[in-house]
Amino acid sequence: MDFSWNEEEREFRGRVQQFLEQYWDRTAGERAMGDARKFERQLAEHGWLTMAWPEAYGGRDATHVEQMIFREEATLHEAPTGGMGPSMIGPCLIVHGTEEQKQEHLPPIAAGESRWCQGFSEPGSGSDLASLQTRAVRDGDDWVINGQKIWTSGAQHASWIHILTRTDPDAPKHRGISYFMLDMKTPGIAIRPIEQMHGAKGFNETFFEDVRVPHKNMIGDENRGWYAATTTLDFERSGAHRAAAVQRAFDRNFDYARQADSAGTGHRIVDHDPSRLAFADTHIEIDVGRTFGYRVGWMQGNGLVPNYEASMSKAFNSELTQRQARRAINMFGLYGGLVAGSARAPLDGAVGQEYMSTVSSTIAAGTSEVQRNIIATRGLGLPRG
Prior knowledge:
Layout: H1 7-23, H2 33-46, H3 64-76, H4 84-96, H5 99-110, E1 116-119, E2 135-139, E3 142-149, E4 160-166, E5 177-183, E6 189-194, E7 203-214, E8 218-219, H6 225-237, H7 241-257, H8 273-301, H9 308-331, H10 350-357, H11 368-379
Parallel strand pairs: 1-4
Antiparallel strand pairs: 2-3, 3-7, 4-5, 5-8, 6-7
Helix pairs in contact: 1-3, 3-7, 3-8, 4-5, 4-6, 7-8, 7-9, 8-9, 9-10, 9-11
């Protein structure tokens, strides 16, 4: 693997940075969904949302490395990147979708016109995802879905959902699952937001009662949806953007720690030896996490399929996200736990907010335990059991 950037890649990174600085205000706080969608359509006009896709489906036939550079820079600027459409379901359809499915769904994703959510986890099926119980029963040219999903990120804003269902209850659990695309306006779908402990409402419960979906919306073969879904999971778990998110928080905390009275005692936090060591450890680990992500992008660009490599990136960077937040809240002391609006809250409560929001990092998109099992069996060739 070549860890350097060529001239074209450096020039492209500069153009992305310039565009983001000009058109996206990272200091504006939490933006309305309408603002994010408008910005994503601007990205689509530049062909950046799905640049590594084939031109026939709205892409630019660009390299996966360029796609990775764009997403990394967008994450550093806290800018939207189109959600699950460009990053998960779109790439899965390119691999497993029919030509009809590609023509119907990929161009709207590339144009920033459709937004997707993911119906995988259930109240009793999270880490052991293959134990899911949401049922789909064949009825002529349709399937009828009944069940419940949970932790459905962005369901309240999505136009489509990609959902795993059980279509053969008598088959071994990995072999009786089918994978569907479902219009969120379909009758029988109900959404209930879940308020998290830090106040955000990005997660939802999603209920399906006699929801009909055409057979043509099945991804892959009947009862073989698990194997198509693993492609989606590989794309979800890969990428240098996870390390970029830690870099963004690190830069914010380090800049604040260098201020004259950041410790609240007339001293600077960064002058304390434990704090300096914590910053040094995080800085080194960000470089390691970024390299894991770069490796995945490099493999994709060379026609390879990252599997356990994506799990390595996911596990390391998820745990780094938590270590960064834990180190930050500890070095800021009791003030670090104050919420936004408190007079003595460092960075207006961002440290405590980040600490709470990273609790789910090693659970979402597959737990660290699941990632380690994948690394052990598929990467190291160790036996199951």
